[in-house]
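Class prep. Write one:
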Amino acid sequence: MESTSSSKSLILLKWALIGGLSSFLFSIISQYSGLSEDFSETLGWVSFLFTFVLNVSILFFALREVRTSQEGFMTYGEGLGSSTLLGAVWGVVAGGFNYIYINFIDDSMIQKQMDLARERMEDQGLTASQIQDAERITNMMISPGIQFITIVFVTTLFIFFLGLVVSGIMKREKPMFD
């Protein structure tokens, strides 16, 4: 039983690293390609759809590998627990990459985000004092530490919700009289 548990942990760690790295790379690509600045509703849906398909695919492959490592059987609870653990580690990996990137590689990214937020507030016709108040809150919310916590929480929650469905599809119970 212990080898199954450790192999399951290694499988989930592998897929969490793949998921976290792919999420981080997608956000960097969208940042540097200008997609985040030229955001439109259509582009938002395309981005969401790509992220959704990527996340479901990674979760499916991870749970399939876990099920295979357990002689082809996995209960719904095991699948959901594995999904939640996968999401938490995935979030830590993606958040960690983001934190390191913002703090040590491109510290101008925060300023770019603030400038973009300021431009959008001016386009909405907010007064200077309203913009200043909003900038204080925005500056706090996009700090690297808060971003790390947000990424971990949102990723864990999102993968948990995906796991509710994918675990139901992937479950295969052991026969009772086997």
Q: What stands out?
A: The chain has a mean pLDDT of 86.
